[in-house]
Amino acid sequence: MDAAQFQTQTGASDAAVADLETFRHRLAEANEHMNLVGPATMPDYWSRHVLDSAQLLDHAPDALTWADLGAGAGFPGVVLAILLKGRPDAHVWLIDSLGKRCRFLQTVVDELDLPATVIWGRAEAQTVTVDVVTARAVAAMDKLLGYAQPYFDRGAQGLFLKGESVETELTEARKSWRFESEWVPSLSDPRGRVVKVGSVRRVR
Fold first, then answer.
1. Residue 121: left (phi > 0), alpha (psi -120 to 50), or beta?
2. Please, what is the average pLDDT of the chain?
3. What's phi and psi for 93, nearest 5 deg?
4. Which of 25, 30, 53, 145 qualifies as a FRET site for 155, CA 20 to 30 Å off?
């Protein structure tokens, strides 16, 4: 997949595609001295990283505020912020516990003038209220629900990008949590899953 194919599939604007192209260059530059994404995945940037992130908007089309836990290289959070840019009241919180990743994210946010706030800290310690809490490649579902619980308590729904082992993860998580969940295959990789989670509470 290239930029034109991504635009055809998603209907992204020319401005959004231009921002995503700039993001690709900044990521490639930073990846030379930081372990943001596997170097072998960069040739598949538009499918493996951008489409994978962008598809979340199809599952919550009315959501304007998002929290990306363990935002890392900016997937899905930076992609969401680019695609939401220009929508009134849209905002994405990019939360990561590693300072150097936050500095990279802040550089991208500033350069592209994104509707996003970078937060350096632990995900579960933040107090922002959002429509959707999301994460990609952060932790197994059991731990991830712990990181996300404060956001659920404030009314968020969960949309998480997971791999093909998600059913095992969900089974394991139910030992510690009660929640509703459903998943669909990822548009970017049939082995991937988009998992929707709600009504989360810890087992007492």
1. left
2. 94
3. -100, 125
4. 53
Strands, E assignment, the chain: 65-69, 91-96, 116-120, 132-136, 157-162, 177-185, 193-202
Which residues are registered as beta bridge partners of 69?
95, 135
| pTM for this prediction | 0.93
Q: Side chain identity at 178, as an amino acid letter?
A: R
- CA distances for 38 relative to 30, 35, 43, 63, 73, angstroms: 12, 7, 10, 30, 11
Rounded to whole angstroms, the Cα distance separating 89 from 10 reads 22
The residues pairing with 120 across neighbouring beta strands, listed in sequence order, are 96
Q: Which residues of 5-18 are buried (b: 16+ CB within 10 A; e: fewer)?
A: ebbeebebeeebbe
Q: Which long-range contacts (CB under 8 A, 24 or more apart) does 153-157 make?
A: 154/129, 154/130, 155/129, 156/67, 156/129, 156/130, 156/131, 156/132, 157/60, 157/63, 157/131, 157/132, 157/133, 157/196, 157/197, 157/198
DSSP for residue 123: G
Q: What one-character DSSP code corresponds to residue 40? A: G
